[in-house]
């Protein structure tokens, strides 16, 4: 079964594995030692990350090393960006409305003070 990057990052353990190997390649044992779950459970998480392309495993002698391939996260970034643009425009409109509404009473107060001074 081909998994997608959204399934991979849905799990907090997999997100933490990505964090661990984002800047340095680690072997499976070193990764497993960072968690309070069994080595088979970590292997299953790494398999899922590999299936969606976020992790590349290389064999060096008897050791298997995991390296992050974060290009797939571009898909997530693109998906999030459409909502960032949407919410930014909505929040900007709200800010303009609130600023306009906040300025209106001050403007009315200023006009009533001028009228009082004229009399």
From TrEMBL:
GO terms for molecular function: DNA binding; DNA-binding transcription factor activity. This is DNA-binding transcriptional regulator, ArsR family. It comes from Ohtaekwangia koreensis. Keywords: DNA-binding. CDD domains: HTH_ARSR. Transmembrane segments: none annotated. Residues 1-88 form the HTH arsR-type domain. The lineage of its organism: Bacteria, Pseudomonadati, Bacteroidota, Cytophagia, Cytophagales. It holds the Pfam family HTH_5.
């Amino acid at each position: 079964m081909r998994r997608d990057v959204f399934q991979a990052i849905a799990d907090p353990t997999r997100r933490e594995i990505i964090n661990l190997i984002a800047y340095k390649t680690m072997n499976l044992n070193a990764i497993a030692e960072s968690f309070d779950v069994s080595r088979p459970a970590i292997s299953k998480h790494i398999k899922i990350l590999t299936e969606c392309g976020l992790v590349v495993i290389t064999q060096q002698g008897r050791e298997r090393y995991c390296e992050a391939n974060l290009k797939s996260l571009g898909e997530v970034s693109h998906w999030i960006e459409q909502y960032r643009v949407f919410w930014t425009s909505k929040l900007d409109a709200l800010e303009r409305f609130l600023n306009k509404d906040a300025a209106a009473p001050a403007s009315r107060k200023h006009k009533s003070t001028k009228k009082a001074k004229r009399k």
